[in-house]
Amino acid sequence: MSNDAPLAVVTGSSSGIGLAIATTLLGQGWRVLGLDRAPATLREERFRGLTVDLADAQAVDAAAARAEGAQALVHAAGVLRVGRIGELSLESSAVMWRLHVHAAERLANALVPGMVRARQGRVVLVGSRVARGCAGRSQYAASKAALVAMARSWAAELAPSGVTVNVVSPAATATAMLQDPARTSVAPKVTPLGRLIQPEEVASLVAYLLSPAAAAITGQDIQVCGGASLEA
Fold this sequence. Notes:
With 232 residues, the protein is of the alpha/beta class. Helix content is 35%, strand content 16%. A seven-stranded parallel β-sheet has the order 3-2-1-4-5-6-7, with helices on both faces. Helix 1 (16-27) crosses helix 5 (199-209). The longest helix is centred in the middle third of the chain and has 29 residues, at 90-118. The chain starts with 6 loop residues before the first strand and ends in an 8-residue tail after the last strand.
């Protein structure tokens, strides 16, 4: 990849929201290093894909070492496991915490100091509207709520350096996650718009938050919910 363009690290880049984000950023002139357990699906000169199990701490650290000089980190990788009280799986909870929270911690811990030294950088964590609470999804909601608390704390630390940290939280989005057999007991909730959110709609907001125009936005949890947040 040419070193002329800014570099963004995007997790979950092989499908769904992560793929839409990587594609959008490439279209805006970024270089993208995509991290995903699945093989890369993008073929573009400014894209490099690494096959990484983001639930594996050592693998995440090794991937971060190959992203030196990154000016943006977008953590979009995710998995949804559902379960009600009395049927909760501690294994499922551990998987979601490793992927959603611990991977974000390790990547940010490795990459953000370089952004601070450069006095510019962007971190966007892809959360979920479910973080506000949802029957049957307590473990998933808890891991996504943790991203909001973490982002707000980092934003407070980093504001003087010019590095921003935000969360983008979509409602039910049209991705392969909706067809995951592990979540069939809880149906997705269609937004008041009468449809699911599209991955490209989430990606456009993420791309804006990575732009110079969004330099004054930090510590926010921005909902892409099709009006779902308006419901009582």
